[in-house]
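note to self — DONT lose this again. spent like an hour looking for the file last time. sequence + predicted structure for the chain T wanted, 209 res
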Amino acid sequence: MNGKRKTPVQRFSTFKLGIFACTAALSWVGCAPVVGAPVRVTAPEGYTVVFPDKADSLRGQDGPVTFRIDSARTPDKTRYEVAWFKFPAAINQAERTELLMRVERGLFNGPTELVKRTQPEGDKNTVDLILDFADGRRGYYHIFYTTDQTMLQVSAVGQRGGEWEGRVDPFFKSVEVNVRGPLPDDPVSAELWRAFQENGLAQTLNQSP
């Protein structure tokens, strides 16, 4: 960004795009999966989820953003994932709406067709997407905020038209959020939001890796 220091929201968005790109690659050309029974993951970060196979967890810090990613890959090369992110400070509604839009836009990396987009009426903090990729994969995404400082992204990506698509809904419904908080509209990070708007983030997010 021309030597400028990235804002926390900007760093999060750029980082998450990398995760999506990595997920897409792993779901298609990853290691041979291990057959197993459904596995329940209980995360201290405040959620539980039931994966259809053995799950791996990755925790870390990317700049100011704390993350945890749980994922499982089944024998048909479908990848199921839950990604949790915690921002360094609470973000207001305008910031949440903008960041959700940026993350959504970041999924359109290369030739991608939007099959369906749904958002609960009056809910600016949740979006559901179904995307078809040029290589024959289909992705299901459920992205939402659990508090005014945390985001959860649930996804399943696999070969379009496979039997796995019938398991997406149960997988999504298995997610239980144990820690929820209010999503106040207080402008608690006006400086962060202003930098987010002014630093050319849209151009960064639309660049191919």
